[in-house]
Amino acid sequence: MLRRVLLGLILAVFASGSGFAGGDQADEARAAPEIPEFSAVYELRRNNLRAAELTRTLRCEDDGRCRFSSEGRTVGFADLLLRGRIDEFTRFRLDADGIHPRDYSYRQRARGDNDEYVRLFFNPATGRVNSRGDDEWQDDIEGEVMDELLSQLRLAMAVRAGETEMEFTVVEGDGEREVYRFEVAGTERIESDAGTFDTVKVQRVGGSERRTTTMWFAPELEYIPVVVKQEHVERENYTATLKEIKSAPKLRSIGG
User: Fold this and answer.
1) What is the CATH classification number for the domain harbouring 33?
2) Can you list the positions of beta strands (E) in 110-210?
C-alpha cells in the first residue's frame, strides 16, 4: 500500500535534458551536457487529505556520475495508521549520449507487514540487469531500459527537448517490464505553496481507461514538476504538489 502511495502514483520527473542541439551547438552540447542540481519538497494528498511528504534531491559530479534520491514519510492520519518511510535512490552516468543506469535502491519501512527492499544493478558491458533483496532475479537488457526513478529523469529530457510524444521502458523491482507513454497536452498556469508558475502539461496515455495521470512541469524551474495528479474512477485520487524549494535548480555542466 505505502509503495503505491509514495512511488507508483508519482510518475513525475525532476530534471531536464542534456542540451542536444544542431550544428556547432550540437558539438558543444555533446562535449558538456547539462543537468540541474536541486532539492525540493512535495506534499502528497489522498482524496484531499494529507498523506505524505517527499524530498527529492539530485546531485552530480564533474565526471557525470549522478545520484537522484527520494525520501518519503507519512504525515497526518496516514502517519497514525502506518508510520511509514520510503528511502529510494538511483545512481547513473550522464554523458553526451544520454543517461545510463548503474544501480537502484528502494527500502520501505512501515507498521505491520509493510517492509520491502529492492536493489537493482545494471551492467551494460554484459547486457544484464540483476536484483538483490526480497526478490532475486536477473535478465537481459535490450535497448533503453531503466529503473522507475531514473525513468522520471529520462522523461524530462524529452519534455525539455520539445518532444510532444514520449515512450520509455521501465524494469520494476520484481523484474516485470512496463512501457510508459506520455504526450504534451498544452500549457497552464499553476499555483502552489512554492509559488505560481507557467507550466507544460503532460498526460500519460494508454494503460487503464479508469485511471488518468497528469503532470505540470515548470520551465522556470528547469522542468521539475509543480503538480502530479492521478485520478481513479470510483477509487482514491492522489495529488503531489510542490511545497518548498530547498535548493533552487541550477544547471551543472558535466565535464566542463
Assistant:
1) 2.40.360
2) 116-123, 128-133, 137-140, 145-146, 165-171, 177-192, 195-205
User: How many domains does the chain divide into?
Assistant: 1
Q: Which domain holds residue 128?
A: 2-253
Query: DSSP secondary structure string, 124-136?
Result: TTTTEEEEEESS-
Instruction: Give strand ranges (E) for the chain.
Output: 34-46, 49-60, 65-74, 85-95, 98-109, 116-123, 128-133, 137-140, 145-146, 165-171, 177-192, 195-205, 211-218, 224-232, 238-253
Q: What is the pTM of this model?
A: 0.83
Q: What is the tens place of the pLDDT at every residue in 173-214?
A: 889 998 889 999 999 999 999 999 999 999 999 866 778 889
How is residue 6 annotated by DSSP? I
Burial class of 38 by CB neighbour count within 10 A (0 to 12, 13 to 18, 19+): buried
